[in-house]
Design goal:
Layout lengths: L6 E10 L4 E9 L2 E6 L6 E4 L2 E2 L3 E2 L5 E6 L7 E6 L1
Antiparallel strand pairs: 1-2, 2-8, 3-7, 4-5, 4-8, 6-7
Length: about 80
């Protein structure tokens, strides 16, 4: 989380990481911009079960998602490959 009061509470990898077929489940709280690095471009992202826009930088491999204030008390993010 960038410049926010947000925090990551847990991270769980599901599926086979060697085949890039699976997902990463992240539980957190707070609003702001979430960023994480990924060597492979994810297929999509959801927050609390709703698909969200995600940006992926081909050069820096940075995945970014904006988490709005309505999810300030807590959220579940899934990034799938």
């Amino acid at each position: 989380m960038y410049n926010s009061g947000g925090a990551i509470e847990s991270v769980e990898q599901c599926g086979d990481p060697s085949s890039y077929n699976g997902r990463i489940h992240i539980k957190g709280r707070g609003a702001g911009s979430f960023g994480g690095y990924s060597s492979v471009k994810p297929k999509g992202c959801s927050i609390n079960g709703e698909e969200e826009e995600m940006k992926y930088g081909e050069e820096d491999k940075l995945v970014t998602v904006t988490i709005d204030a309505s999810n300030n008390s807590g959220w579940d993010m899934d990034i799938w490959y």
